[in-house]
Specification:
Blueprint: E1 5-9, H1 16-22, H2 25-33, E2 39-43, E3 61-64, H3 76-90, E4 94-98, H4 100-108, E5 112-115, E6 121-129, H5 134-139, E7 146-152, E8 154-158, E9 163-168, E10 176-179, E11 183-186, H6 194-206, H7 215-227, H8 232-243
Parallel strand pairs: 1-2, 1-3, 3-4, 4-11
Antiparallel strand pairs: 5-8, 6-7, 6-9, 9-10, 10-11
Length: 247
């Protein structure tokens, strides 16, 4: 039996810390999504590394990671990624987008992304599953609300015409969406743990991407991940189930 093959489209450079502690973001994602007997490849799309057109049919699914870049930007690699996602959509390939990946999927399919209406969302957030997706969650015995780690200041502002919201939170109207049976976006970070989030917050502050005025908000985010754990196993089941055709 031929092995299933998946591609991770890496939209951010690895930090030295994540490489040393976890083996890089590729390893973090494979830990969440990968199973024995599968083949996982990684493409550093933020550095201009993309799969060739003739390779696309050989993949069973694609995963788009988070990024410090804006999904509504016009950098060459972002425009190339939009074009690739449109091609994969036309091929009805399974595509899972996480954070920036969720937003760029929204853009590629005809929606609108931009700065979040309610500003930064950092820390642990409880998201509510919409009633029209309860059957999907029930199949995996997943109970709403779901706790997930967040770190974003952009969001999907307008859904693509073909898409439907399947989860929302108090702060973000489109926490998850689906488009047909082959595309799903998740605004949160199911691949993150507390340690990765805290390291990322330090990096963002060092780069002045989180202003001093938000430091109180950062402390509240740290307290939220101290108080509760994300629903990691539920997210693992959901993401694997979608990507591998079990849902």
């Amino acid at each position: 039996m031929e092995k299933k093959r998946f591609a991770l489209l890496l939209c951010a450079e690895d930090s030295e810390y994540v490489k040393k502690r976890y083996g890089g973001y590729f390893s973090v994602f494979v830990e969440l999504l990968g199973e024995e007997g599968e083949v996982w490849d990684v493409y550093g799309v933020c550095q201009g590394e993309f799969p060739a057109d003739n390779q696309l049919p050989f993949y069973d699914g694609f995963v788009i990671t988070g990024s410090c870049s804006d999904a509504d930007g016009n950098d060459a690699w972002i425009l190339s990624l939009v074009a690739l996602l449109q091609t994969l959509d036309s091929m009805r390939k399974k595509i899972l987008g996480i954070c920036f990946g969720h937003q760029i999927l929204g853009r590629a399919l005809g929606g609108k992304t931009g700065r979040a209406i309610n500003g930064w969302d950092i820390g642990l957030t409880a998201i509510n599953v919409s009633s029209n997706s309860c059957e999907l969650m029930a199949a995996l015995k997943i109970v709403s609300p779901l706790r997930v780690i967040q770190c974003h200041r952009d969001e999907v502002l307008e859904l693509p015409a073909r898409a439907e919201v399947i989860a929302w939170s108090e702060k973000t109207g489109v926490e998850m969406f689906r488009c047909g049976e082959h595309i799903m976006g998740i605004q949160g970070h199911p691949e993150y743990n507390k340690d990765i989030l805290l390291h990322l917050l330090d990096r963002l502050r060092q780069r002045d991407l989180i202003q001093a005025s938000l430091h109180q908000h950062v402390e509240a985010a740290k307290a939220s991940v101290d108080a509760h754990e994300p629903d990691g196993e539920a997210w693992k089941s959901l993401c694997r189930g979608f990507l591998k055709g079990a849902l």
